[in-house]
Amino acid sequence: MFANVIVDISHEKLDRTFQYRVPETFSEKVKPGVVVEIPFGKGNRLIKGYVVEVTSRAEFDEKKMKEIHSVSTDGIGVESRLIALASWIREYYGSTMIQALKTVLPVREKERRKEQKKLCLKVSREEGEKAREFFGQKNQKARLRLMEALLETEELSWEIATKKLNLSPALIRTMEEKGLVKVESSTVYRNPIRLHGVQQEKKELNKEQRQVVEGILRCWKEDAKPCLLHGVTGSGKTEVYMELIEAVLAEGKQAIVLIPEIALTYQTVLRFYRRFGERISILNSRLSKGERFDQYERARTEQVDVIIGPRSALFAPFPNLGLIIMDEEHEPSYKSESVPRYHTREVAEKRASLEGARVVFGSATPSVEAYRKAERGEYHLFAMKKRVKDQPLPSVEIVDLKEELKEGNRSVLSRRLREEMALCLAARHQMMLFLNRRGYAGFLSCRSCGTVLKCPHCDVSLSVHSNGKLVCHYCGYEEPKKERCPKCGSPFLREFGIGTQQVERIVQKEFPGARVLRMDLDTTREKDGHEKILEAFAHHEADILIGTQMIVKGHDFPDVTLVGVLAADLSLHAADYRAAERTFQLLTQAAGRAGRGDVPGRVVIQTYDPDHYSIQASKDQDYQMFYQREILYRRISVYPPEGAMLAIHASGTDEGYLSVAMDYLKKFISRFEDKTGIGIIGPADETIAKISDHYRKVLYVKHEDEKVLTMIKEKVEQYMEINEGFRAVHIQFDRNE
Ligand code: ADP
Ligand code: ZN
Ligand code: ZN
After folding, report:
1. Recorded GO terms, molecular function (predicted)?
2. Residue 10 forms beta bridges with which residues?
3. Which residues pair with 309 in a beta bridge?
4. pLDDT one-digit tens code per residue, 665-721
């Protein structure tokens, strides 16, 4: 057995591992994360290192390999536990150990820390006064100034001493040598939260919230199972989280709060700040690298005990982690789209179990996976069925767009929605119009020959932008808008589909007096763009907010009484077994924006598919109905969570070569078919078969047991490693997607 060891946990150095032989006597103890002492360099000096991998493959001549000297038995630090977590991530999701380590260990900043130096007295006051007298008699003015200042303030910053008191570093050093003065330095970490003079505040929990808090605290005493909080929109889940965090902090432990990046707004930070003040910090993509690293350091050194952020905050190196909260647990952004393609819910559970921490998942529309686990008793389930002040849930109406068309209404706004909009504006309330798609104008197609204008590098249609250009949203390719069909020359090019910009134009035309804000990729591109729009809307600077997915997340606008969903079923047509689930979640969350204040909310959902269960269930905001239908479908088709799936994504620049490689891979995997009973689907083109001139194919392997798929994944990894033919093919694994 051999162990790969890193001796320095900084991102640049993670690539450099050293291999050592594991002596028989240690073979039980040496695991990823364990701290070992190893002979290092020419002099075989003993240094400490972390084991990151244990393997049976020697990287170089065994005879020349040194042995691990000893295994450390000191308390295991958070670094060790994070390395153990990385090892699990590598094994489960498929990646190299380095990729996994880089995911869990924060990037160390090369830039020098800001040091703050200060001076203080090293002797008693009495002796200090004697010294002052002495310097006074001797007329040593600079020394006298320093002693006087220190007797007055006890602590003096380096800046004040050198600039204001005009003392030279040489003089300070002399005083230090005389044993009169002490110079201390401490590192100053950047704090991204600039809130001062904000009043602390704690809300009195209502009955439902109190019952949930008490119930969860009781469960924590019994076992380590995660808790799932299913609370309707506006039921006050955040207050519950804060109460639980307080309980954990009281035990001297720390907490991580995961929320989707888009919900990490000023308002959210303010809520946590009101409760916990300077003990909180945030992580988000707007922080600079240095600021990010400082937040990890503040966590490691316990300068803060609550970190709030999107999925990467899960790896905050708290030495004594007590609780992980994952709000909006169903959100797709919790899945990493780069290798290792981990799911935050699964890794949160794993980290908690490695560190003895608690986990609480929360959502108004729990993922089918999480709810199924609660049903099986793997999670404790808690429910909040009422809104905080007992406001009614909004009433939802469904409009069949096929009927509208039959009656001659070709507008994106149905007659019912228009009526409600007029009422809402007349009452001076606010509304949100939600377009269930990416927020751009549609594509161009030729009415004569049917050709759709596509990106030359990707297998996607080009989008029409208001600046008159055709743009590819996958690779950024642009070309001027065409007057004629490139294939048949016909001038009859027509725009299909509708985007937020067009909706805005139509709404402006129908309601000329209304003030409209639009939130989509275009208007939120600039720094803090999305936050600015939300703030403006919160301050009632507009009556109507039009937007995509972005506007449905976790915002609390008490004046919104109407939500219009313009094309509810667009997300149903995605080639994805989660399409119905996503649609239900989006519609329910969107509807949940209405009626949070004192006036009851109304929702109008426009669709071509009014009978679909995901749309019917969101009409009644009936999670149970949706879940029962959905789990049945997953069971019949053996989709997660009723079966496990491993996707093998492959890409390459040569389509024929890629095809052959995938066929070989399939043949290889088929060898395990009889023994294990796995099912193989594909290879097939991905939904988007080409991006930036790279062809893309996918192969799915299904089985009830996840462990079988882990085994298959490992076999495939080994197979590709020894097969030269796979060098030109890029492979990524994905679990349950
Ligand atoms: P959810 O996350 O469940 O949608 P929130 O936690 O955002 O709900 O709470 C909705 C609103 O109700 C927030 O404005 C919050 O400040 C307020 N709120 C929550 N709990 C209470 C309470 N016990 N008393 C008064 N207001 C509350
Ligand atoms: Zn044509
Ligand atoms: Zn492209």
Report:
1. 3'-5' DNA helicase activity; ATP binding; DNA binding; hydrolase activity; zinc ion binding
2. none
3. 258
4. 999 999 999 899 998 988 888 877 888 899 999 898 999 888 999 999 999 998 988
Compute how many other C-beta atoms are within 10 angstroms of the C-beta atom of residue 297. Answer: 19
**What global pTM score does this model have?**
0.84
**Cα-flanking dihedrals φ and ψ of residue 517, to 5°?**
-115, 145
Mean pLDDT of 60-78: 84
Instruction: Please report which ligand is nearest the Cα atom of 475.
Output: 3
Q: In this structure, are residues 605 and 397 in contact, taking their beta carbons and an 8 Å threshold?
A: yes
Backbone angles phi, psi at 246, to 5 degrees: -60, -40
**Residues ≥6 apart with Cβ < 8 Å to 439:** 499, 500, 501, 520, 521, 522, 547, 548
Q: Which residue CA neighbors atom 13 of ligand 1 most closely? A: 236
- pLDDT one-digit tens code per residue, 338-366: 889 999 999 999 999 999 999 999 999 99
* Nearest Cα residue to 102 out of 348, 338, 344: 338
Query: Which of 36-50, 456-470, 668-682, 685-699 shows the lowest mean pLDDT across its residues?
Result: 456-470
Helix (H/G/I), strand (E/B), else coil: 262: helix
| 618 C-beta closer than 6 A to ligand 1 | no
Residue closest to 359 by CA, chosen among 530, 496, 245:
245
**Number of residues written out for the chain:** 737
Residues 6 or more apart whose Cβ sits within 8 Å of residue 307:
254, 255, 256, 257, 280, 281, 282, 283, 295, 299, 313, 316, 318
**What ligand has the least distance to the C-alpha of 463?**
3
